[in-house]
Amino acid sequence: MALIPSQVLRVAILLSYFSILCNYKAIDMPAHQTYGGSWKFLTFIDLVIQAVFFGVCVLTDLSSLLTKGSESQEQERQLRKLIGLRDWMMAVLAFPVGVI
């Protein structure tokens, strides 16, 4: 089954967020050595939230691709829970912090 462009885009965004996080942590800034470190900056917190959110999106896409032909009720229930987690993260964490 072919991947949809949105799934490929989510994987690309996830990889770019992880590369930005790795590069950000490699930079030696004096502000990172003080109280709170990188976690005192909202931009860093937003970057981590967005990376986790897109990780859940990619996991949801993979789960839906793997359970596409299955008729198992347990797998469908787990997929619905994962989709609910993804929607909750978007509504409560990713969107509001990203807009700020």
From TrEMBL:
Recorded coiled-coil stretches: none
Keywords noted in UniProt: Membrane, Transmembrane, Transmembrane helix
Top-level taxon in the UniProt lineage: Eukaryota
Pfam families found in the cross-reference section: Far-17a_AIG1
Catalytic activity: 13-octadecanoyloxy-octadecanoate + H2O = 13-hydroxy-octadecanoate + octadecanoate + H(+); 9-(9Z-hexadecenoyloxy)-octadecanoate + H2O = (9Z)-hexadecenoate + 9-hydroxy-octadecanoate + H(+); 12-octadecanoyloxy-octadecanoate + H2O = 12-hydroxyoctadecanoate + octadecanoate + H(+); 12-(9Z-hexadecenoyloxy)-octadecanoate + H2O = 12-hydroxyoctadecanoate + (9Z)-hexadecenoate + H(+)
Membrane topology: Multi-pass membrane protein
The keyword Membrane appears for this protein: yes
Compartments where located: Endomembrane system
InterPro entries: ADTRP_AIG1
Sequence similarity: Belongs to the AIG1 family.
Protein name, per record: Androgen-induced gene 1 protein isoform X3
